[in-house]
Amino acid sequence: xxxxxxxxxxxxxxxxxxxxxxxxxxxxxxxxxxxxxxxxxxxxxxxxxxxxxxxxxxxxxxxxxxxxxxxxxxxxxxxxxxxxxxxxxxxxxxxxxxxxxxxxxxxxxxxxxxxxxxxxxxxxxxxxxxxxxxxxxxxxxxxxxxxxxxxxxxxxxxxxxxxxxxxxxxxxx
Length: 173
Hints:
Number of strands: 7
Radius of gyration: 14 Å
Distance between the termini: 16 Å
Order of helices and strands: HEHHEHEHEHEEHEH
CATH superfamily: Isochorismatase-like
CATH topology: Rossmann fold
Oligomer: single chain
Structural class: alpha/beta
Strand content: 15-25%
Number of helices: 8
Largest sheet: 7 strands, parallel
Shape: globular
CATH class: Alpha Beta
């Protein structure tokens, strides 16, 4: 599905929107195919700039003992007005119960998912989000998997259970 939001509806659109940035840490990033590394970083940085511009909250989720989120992203995250960093020890970010509380405090109903691995951690988090009643949104440029086959299979799941857009701009611009 591809869509754009008329200007007069943007404030309503942003009101219950939140971003979850999952496992953008070096141990996971190094396993992504080289041709996708630049794409995912450019798209996520663009999304974070829009979060800064429109005060869209971002929850950063990091896998325990895998280091910090990549420096390029951390630099932008410091400028996002509402940011929380949580640590998880399982693929599904909702296993950290603080995530549900943070999203409730932000009045989030729609979640833009970004991160690695599209076919594991991001997917498990997306499945939990859908079970909890959240609308999920992503774009192929915002997520990456470790293999082409598994990444494409997961994109099919996102399409059937949420919204997959071609570009970051229609959902954040």
